Amino acid sequence: MTSKTFDRRSFLKKSALAGTAATGATLAAPAVLAQSPIVMKMQTSWPASDIWDEFAKDYAQRVDEMSGGRLKIDVLPAGAVVAAFQVLDAVNDGVIDAAHSVPVYWYGKNKAASLFGTGPVFGGSATTMLAWFYEGGGAELYRELTQDIMGLDVIGYLGFPMFAQPFGWFKGEVSTPADLQGFKYRTVGLAADLMAKLGMSVAQLPGGEIVPAMERGVIDAFEFNNPTSDRRFGAQDVATNYYLSSYHQASESFEFLFSRTFVEDLDPDLQAILKYGVEAASTANTAKAMRQYSTDLKELQEGGVTVRRTSKEILDAQLAAWDQLIPELEQDEFMKRCLDSQREWVEKVAYYELMNAPDYALAYDHYFPGKLSL
């Protein structure tokens, strides 16, 4: 598929240039050089109903407008070509040109994938870790993993630092680590290893399979990501206790995956638009998420869902579980280098962030008293 796309595009370019030589005396140059836009097939890992599908289309819109219509992205939902967890293979094999996903979805191929968004939380937010990707050496480590270690023909960028993911949905109240014993819980990546150390058995499922799995009893508790996605796929229909705040996935961003061969065949300005369009979409996604996530959280509460913050006891237990898991991960040389790099970055950068940040909760409670008593 990819090679045919290249051949067609090369033919169009050559035809346009030939036309210029043959008819330049009678036709204006813009008319001669006009050609069909290059169309990039991008599949997401999200159902068409998910707000994240909208986020992918926000990116496509920006690429279209910045390229003056020369490059268009055809955004396809999960399952349109391949399953949600298979987009990396599909991009590498040229079945699709690009994907909108998260690295943790190819955790099954290499556990180190989870470190690019779903690893230990040393004290930095998703914004801290997205900065590590671009300014702290993370991008080169990602390139080493995908291209050198795994031998993949892909280029990837991260964008949209996600708000910390809720601990999730439970049928009853959970307030201590002992309450978690024996739960069949859905999560993904290293969070699965973490929850196993807390006494839960874990199933790694795409978002679209969560509610059916709850209904069949395959799982009895779960997390996905945010109030809007959760509400849209019907989380509130199978559980009514929603716990916000957790260390299991507190630093994740979207992954924008591209076929390296496809990208390198593009003109340099289009390559730049694909790259820096990620930054533009990241800002747009953040603004939309703030508006919509908070709106849907309120509607979940008004619909009968009990919203609480995860207890300090459970958060402490999560950190203790990370402490057990990290030495196991560091037996892998590459993963140790990633974790060392992340610790060094967070120690330096988050120190400034945390020392400098005022107590926003104090100010919020001052102007909206009592609302934070979840």
Write the layout of secondary structure elements.
Elements: H1 2-23, H2 29-33, E1 38-44, H3 51-66, E2 71-76, H4 87-92, E3 98-101, H5 126-135, H6 138-149, E4 154-161, E5 168-170, E6 184-186, H7 190-197, E7 201-203, H8 210-216, E8 221-222, H9 227-232, E9 241-244, E10 253-259, H10 260-264, H11 268-302, E11 306-309, H12 312-329, H13 333-356, H14 360-367
Parallel strand pairs: 1-2, 1-3, 6-7, 6-8, 9-11
Antiparallel strand pairs: 3-10, 4-10, 5-8, 5-9
Helix pairs in contact: 3-11, 5-6, 7-12
Number of strands: 11
Q: Can you tell me the CATH superfamily of the domain at 2-163 and 251-291?
A: Bacterial extracellular solute-binding protein, family 7
Q: What characterizes the major β-sheet? A: 6 strands, mixed
Distance from first to last alpha carbon: 52 Å
Low-confidence stretches: 1-32
Helices and strands, in order, run as HHEHEHEHHEEEHEHEHEEHHEHHH
The global form is globular
Q: Based on the structure given, which CATH architecture of the domain at 2-163 and 251-291 is correct?
A: 3-Layer(aba) Sandwich
CATH overall fold name of the domain at 2-163 and 251-291: D-Maltodextrin-Binding Protein, domain 2
Structural class: alpha/beta
What count of helical segments does DSSP give? 14
- What proportion of the residues form beta strands (DSSP E)? 5-15%
Helix content: 40-55%
Strand order of the largest sheet: 7-6-8-5-9-11
Main location: periplasm
Keywords: Metal-binding, Periplasm, Signal
Signal peptide: 1-34
Subcellular location: Periplasm
